[in-house]
Amino acid sequence: MFYFISIFLLALFDIVATHYQIIVYGSYAVEANPVMRWVMETYGITTAYGVRLITAIIGVSLLLFVQQHEPRARWLLRFILVAYVALACWHCYISDLFTIHLG
Asked: Is residue 24 in a domain?
């Protein structure tokens, strides 16, 4: 359950941070994932939120189900969690969240 909740929250943070950066930086910021960029441009940001969260839920649910029969699936869950944490750190870095502005 830890993996499910963690990855879901990180996927939510990812789409919110992407939306924020597109609003703040305008045409300089785009979605790096071409499929999600197409969804955003074609159907709008609300649908993109749904698609991102539904794909995260389905993917993690399948891995949690497979994990019962294949213990190596836990490594994949750990990898996905680390990848989402790295992506969250990247979003924070490019949003100047960790930058101290003096002056």
From this structure: yes
Count up the domains in the chain and report the number.
1
Torsion angles phi and psi, residue 65, rounded to 5:
-70, -45
Tokens for 17? Answer: 């941070």
pLDDT digits (tens, 9 = 90+) for 16-71: 888 887 887 776 777 878 888 899 889 988 898 899 889 888 888 888 888 888 87
The domain of 88 spans 2-94
On the CB side of 4, how many CA atoms lie within 13 Å of its CA?
10
Q: What angle do CA 54, 93, 8 make, to 5 degrees?
A: 20
pTM for this prediction: 0.69
Degrees (nearest 5) of the Cα angle 63, 9, 56? 35
Is 103 a domain residue? no
